[in-house]
Amino acid sequence: MTTHRIIIGLEVHVQLLTKTKLFCGCSTQFGLPPNSATCPICCGLPGTLPVMNREAFHLALKAATALNCKIASFTKWDRKNYYYPDLPKNYQISQYDLPFSSEGWLEIELPSGPKKVGIIRAHLEEDAGKMLHDEHAGKSDSLVDLNRTGTPLLEIVSKPAIDTPEEAKAYLEELRLLLREIGVSDCEMQEGSLRCDANINIHVPQADGTFIATPIIEIKNLNSFRGVERALKYEAERQANELRRSLDAGAWVVDSSRAKAFRDYAVIQVLTQRGSEVAKATAGWDERTGRTEIQRRKEEASDYRYFPEPDLVPVKVDAAILDKVRTELGELPAAQKARLQSQYGIPAYDAGILSRQGRAFVAYFEAVVKTCGDAKEACNWTINDLLSTLNERQLDINVCPLSPQGLGELIVEIKSTGLNKQRAREVYTAMLDGLTAKQAIDKLGFKVVGDEAQLLELVRRAIAANPKAVADFKKGKLKAADAIKGFVMRETKGMANTEVVQRLVMEELNRG
Ligand SMILES: [Zn+2]
């Protein structure tokens, strides 16, 4: 089959980090006993009135501003009507035609370079409760926990402008980093504080330059970023196969009279089945089987009979509020990455790794640079050694056993003595137990050999003992010099001053 184009749009729900729910005073704490954080308002009893949580609106404004969205000066609440056992009111308070924010973008980093993914809108709504199935012996029970009912959710809807499953994952990672950094959400997918629904279809090119568009499938139950990527890969393939089968069998027909423009560059052909457009559908993702299962026709907005929420007043946002929000945001990851690159002269890739670890990690790196004055070495040690130490010991940077000053002093020590990397790593490991660089070097008994006459003699012996390496070097294989340096390092048990050895080896090899 001809290569198709994948079209992905993501709907992300994040729980905002408020202490209480969106319209009542119940706790939003995760893991409380079932139905203990409920009241007449979030249980939807008649006669109760919701009151908007200001902090929730404030956090939502922060997120939308960080996502470069336009903020509406006037916004209102709407009822989205549907019946489900975990929704006692039979409606959810959400935002329909006047969301508080729209038209933003998020910049993501791809192997091909940066890309801005458009955001259609971000709006606030309340969460539903949770159904627990088959929890007890016999496995046929269904229970309802309303603790989550009324928790503030921010829904962020991307444009269908994500081109690959890998890009979808990068978008989610960047979004999570941003929302965590500005303190809007903890974005814990395992605890449900970040949830993602993915809309996907494919456009298959035709001989006349148009594309056949498969019906959009919305994939639910995605509970990891890896799962999102896998599900989208699977679903794109499944749609390609289904399209071929259905066209061959005559079940689907291309109806040219319904062709329409897609963005500003393509014309897409619509598929029909017995005269009507093939419907969009919802699918669940099964992590164990690695397959999507088509569940039901997808609801349209008209199915929900939206109408303005009569119990809540609209919200007005003025310039003073927006100014306050902007000053609170601080340095955002994308700006921080650009600054790290220009201020410290480190590569974009490294700046990206630093930035992705969060503000505390970046502050640590900057403190190391301050002590040692060498950004390149500070960057190498923090993103390689320190990061693997933190990962291995499952530690947060805030409780790192080695202070940034300590790491900075180690770098100074390495540069002044010429201690080689392998030995320096041993010093570093000893420092994790609380020693200073000098104490660790003393304890390990490391004495760097810096005496030039002594090292020169070793270099000459190494050259005499390695005629092949010398010949290779003269033929232009510069790597061959490593054999000479390796000889000297072995002879000194790794304690030769690496800078002096490097210089002497080059001088001797280039001599004649
Ligand atoms: Zn409540």
Question: What do you see in this structure?
Answer:
The protein is an alpha+beta fold and 512 residues long. It has four domains: 9-187 and 299-329, no CATH class; 200-297, no CATH class; 331-444, no CATH class; 452-509, Arc Repressor Mutant, subunit A. 38% of the residues lie in helices and 23% in strands. The protein has helices at 54-66, 165-181, 225-249, 319-329, 333-344, 348-356, 359-372, 375-392, 404-417, 421-431, 437-444, 452-465, 467-474, 481-491, 498-509; strands at residues 5-15, 70-71, 74-75, 78-81, 91-94, 101-110, 113-126, 130-133, 142-145, 152-158, 194-205, 211-213, 217-222, 253-262, 266-273, 276-277, 281-286, 291-297, 307-308, 315-316. The strands form four sheets. Strands 1, 2, 6, 7, 10, 11, 12, 13, 14, 15, 16, 17 and 18 form a 13-stranded mixed β-sheet that branches. Strands 5-4-19 form a three-stranded antiparallel β-sheet, with no helix packed on it. The protein has a two-stranded antiparallel ribbon with strand order 3-20. Helix 1 (54-66) crosses helix 4 (319-329). The longest helix has 25 residues, at 225-249. The protein binds zinc ion (ZN). The site of zinc ion (ZN) has 8 residues, from loops. Zinc ion binds at residues 21, 24, 26, 38-39, 41-42, 150.
